[in-house]
Amino acid sequence: MGLFKLDLYRSFAIGFVLGAIGLFGAIGLQDGTSLAHQMIPAAEAAPAHPDRTR
Predict the structure, then answer these.
(1) Pick the residue with more confidence: 52 or 10?
(2) Distance CA 49, CA 26 (A)
(3) Taking CA atoms, which of 12, 14, 22, 27 is between 20 and 30 Å from 4?
(4) What radius of gyration, in Å, describes the C-alpha atoms of the chain?
């Protein structure tokens, strides 16, 4: 007899799979864009300022 029964591990596995499917369904599949483009903004350079140290 182990510490936990097999049903506990099975429930965690099913919950993890259903949660991952729900997460990718809600975030990853909107408007046909990839998940990386939604979470990471495009790089943008800062404006150049004149040197005022002299």
Answers:
(1) 10
(2) 42
(3) 22
(4) 23
**Phi, psi values for residue 11, rounded to 5°:** -65, -40
What does the pLDDT average to over 20-27? 81
Are 38 and 30 a contacting pair, CB within 8 Å? yes
DSSP state of 51: -
Distances (CA, A) of 17 to 2, 9, 14, 23, 28: 24, 12, 5, 10, 15
> How far apart, in Å, are the Cα atoms of 51 and each of 19, 30, 44, 46, 47?
52, 45, 21, 15, 13
Give, in order, the Cα–Cα distances in Å from 10 to each of 16, 34, 36, 46.
10, 31, 31, 51
